[in-house]
Every structure is written in C-alpha cells, then in structure tokens.
Description:
- By secondary structure, the chain is α/β, with parallel strands linked by helices.
- It has helices at 21-32, 99-112, 156-160, 221-234, 282-302, 309-336, 344-351, 362-365, and strands at residues 10-17, 37-40, 55-57, 71-81, 87-97, 116-118, 121-127, 130-135, 138-149, 168-177, 184-188, 198-203, 206-213, 243-252, 260-261, 264-266.
- 29% of the residues lie in helices and 30% in strands.
- The strands form two sheets. Strands 1, 2, 6, 7, 8, 9, 15 and 16 form an eight-stranded mixed sheet that branches. An eight-stranded mixed sheet has the order 3-5-4-11-12-13-10-14.
- The structure holds flavin-adenine dinucleotide.
- Flavin-adenine dinucleotide is lined by residues 17-23, 40-43, 51-56, 122-123, 150-152, 156, 171, 173, 210, 248-249, 251, 268-270, 274, 279-282, 285.
Amino acid sequence: MSTAEMPIAGSYDILVVGAGPAGSSAARAAAQKGATVLMVDRRQRIGLPVQCAEFVPQAISRYVGFSSKCIAQTVETMITHLPDQRSYEMKSPGFMLDRSLFDKELAASAVLSGAKISTGTRAVEFSPEGLVIERGGKHESVRARVIIGADGVRSSVAQWAGLPPGRTTIALQYEVVLPHPQNHVDIYFRKDYEGAYAWFFPKGKTANVGIGVIPQRTPLLPNLMEGFLNRLVDLKKMGRIEVIGKTGGAIPCEKPGQTVFGNIMLAGDAAGHAHPITGAGILNAVLGGKMAGRIAAESLAKGDLNHLCQYEMEWREAFGASLSYGAFKRDSLEENWNKSDIDFESLIRKTWVGFKEYYKDRRKSGLKP
Length: 369
Ligand SMILES: Cc1cc2nc3c(=O)[nH]c(=O)nc-3n(C[C@H](O)[C@H](O)[C@H](O)COP(=O)(O)OP(=O)(O)OC[C@H]3O[C@@H](n4cnc5c(N)ncnc54)[C@H](O)[C@@H]3O)c2cc1C
C-alpha cells in the first residue's frame, strides 16, 4: 500500500508535525508513555535533502541512540581562524553525522516505539479539533488533543500559534572532495561574513564547506563562497575545487521565547532552539523534542493540559540560559560588526564560543553561557 493509500485521518492523542530530530524525539517519547501518536512530514523521504553541516558534540549519544553508521567521522578539536591570520585551537569532541541516516534512524525508533508516520504529508491549516493535512493532492482532517510543532525554522505551527517569523542567519553550503583526512573542524571569521562565519567540516572523503551571513547579505553568498573555496585551495585544504553537492538554509538565531500555546507545543528550530551564535540546533532539538513528547503524554494521562507548561520550565532549565546568553552575544556582535572604532578581532573573541572571552560577561548579563 502506498503512503497516500494508508488511512491516517482519525483521532490521535498527539499529532507531531515534522520528522526531523525534534519531531522524531517527541513522537518516540510520547509513544513510549502510551500515547497514540501520528507524526507527519511533508518530505517524501525522511532526512532528505540534508540542509545541515552535520556536526554534533559527542555528548549527544548520552541523550539519543543511533548506530555507528550515522557517524561519518569523529572530530577532536575546533580551530578558529581570525582575519589577522592567527588561529586558536580548542577541544571540541564531536561527530560528523550522516544526517540523512541519523534522521531516518530517529524516525524509525519513533515508529518502533508505537508512533505512526506519514511522509509526503503537509500540515496546511488548523481545524477546530486538530489540523488539516494535505497528501497526494487531497486534504484531510486529523483530530488531536495536543499538537507538537517540530516543523523547523519558519514553522507553520508557530505561525498558527500567533508567532511572528523568528530572526535567522542564512547559510550556503557545498560538499567538496577532501583529499587529506583531518580530525578537526575549521571556523573562519571575516568582515564579509557579516553576523556569522565560514566553516570547513571534514566528513571522511568529503567536507562540508559553508558560509553564514545575516539575511540582508544573502545575495552575496555565491561570490563569498567562490572566494572562500579559492582560499581553501591556497591554504592547501584541497588540491582543486570539486563540488559534489550544494545546500543551505535559514538557521534560527534568536532569544528563545514562549513555546506552549494552549494545546500547541513547539520544539527544535520551530521553537528557535538553535544556538544564536554557533547555529547548532540538533542536540537541543533532540533534548527539547524528548521533553515535549513526554510531557504531552503525561498531561493527557493526567487529563490536565496546564501541565504542558512544565515543558517550558524543563527546556529553560536544560539549555535556556545558554541560548539567552548566546542571544545577548549576538546582539553585541551584530551591533558592532561594522563599527570602524571597534577592533574586529576583539569583537570576535568576545562573541565566539571558541574564546574564553566569550564566557566573561556572565555576571554583567546575569546569564550563564
Ligand atoms: C546550512 C545549515 C547548517 C547547519 N549545521 C548544523 C550543524 O552542523 N550542527 C547542528 O547542530 N545544527 C546545524 N544546523 C541546524 C540544524 O540543522 C537544525 O537545528 C535541526 O535540523 C533542527 O531540527 P528540527 O527537528 O527542529 O527541524 P528540521 O530538522 O528542520 O525538521 C523539520 C521537519 O519538518 C518538516 N516540515 C516542515 N513544515 C512542515 C509541514 N507544514 N508539514 C509537515 N512537515 C513539515 C520538514 O520537512 C522537516 O523534515 C544547520 C542548519 C543549516 C541550515
């Protein structure tokens, strides 16, 4: 039976929109607590296309199970390169994921825990008792007592909950052939990469090469990428430029806000849970998604939707302070980036996680990084 033929309309305890790391983690946690769960994703194939640089801290394996096949390689350190040619290395044990496989495994775990999944299925609007979904050109109503919006950056569910579009950076990324193996990630700052940075992340025989900027600079990205690739050749990172893939997308970079609205919860990028400075969002998507799914199921078991607010408290406790501190640093970064009287290198040292100066304003901000 094809996806379009499988009946999904009906009534569920929880409807999860989006089968990325946040949605699959939420669906799994809720199903494990005995809730009936439907997870829908507009993509025909979970995890594809990949729109990610695929780096996660190794600590992620404490919170989510995935097979070693999802790891393209391990990474030991991060080297930050400043425009004055100086470089700084810090420990940064990480995994370079095969993100498409990772997302697929997480979705499979949700299904194995009892959740139902429907791909090629887009949530299109609210209905009085749930959502209207569209698949195979047809609209259907799905009833649900709780809706978890895990539909990524520019989330429709967040919009239906009344939120304005969140602040983002925009990134362009190429996958290139990597002639020499390397076990660190490189980060490059330049005034041209306004409000963000460029990266070179090794993945075995290939590398993810990307540049992020504030949205107003998006049209510059192709030229910036050309210049960056040429510089990488000059730096002997690669012998010649061989591009085997192109991707990109928006990354949330805002101060985290409200995530529970009546019976609606937001998780992952839909909740703006990526780090405002680094753009890393996979770990928080997994953590937040797990909390959202568990708490949604608990609320239904108690018959008390007020309990959903526990989610807001738990994610703030787990990673809210680090996001707020990152947002505080981002404000300073964007405000001072083009000021002629500001020393650019000092600004980066104060606003990038690879320098100890980043952590120094804790007391002033009243936040912890
Ligand atoms: C270029 C780039 C590089 C990045 N690099 C990194 C990195 O190296 N490390 C890191 O930690 N983070 C990185 N990120 C951020 C990371 O990719 C996200 O934070 C992460 O994917 C968030 O997971 P999620 O589950 O919230 O959302 P997503 O992974 O975006 O999943 C959302 C899902 O919702 C589906 N969907 C959307 N709308 C609907 C709808 N209406 N109906 C049904 N389904 C819908 C989408 O198809 C998608 O599958 C990067 C992002 C970009 C753009």
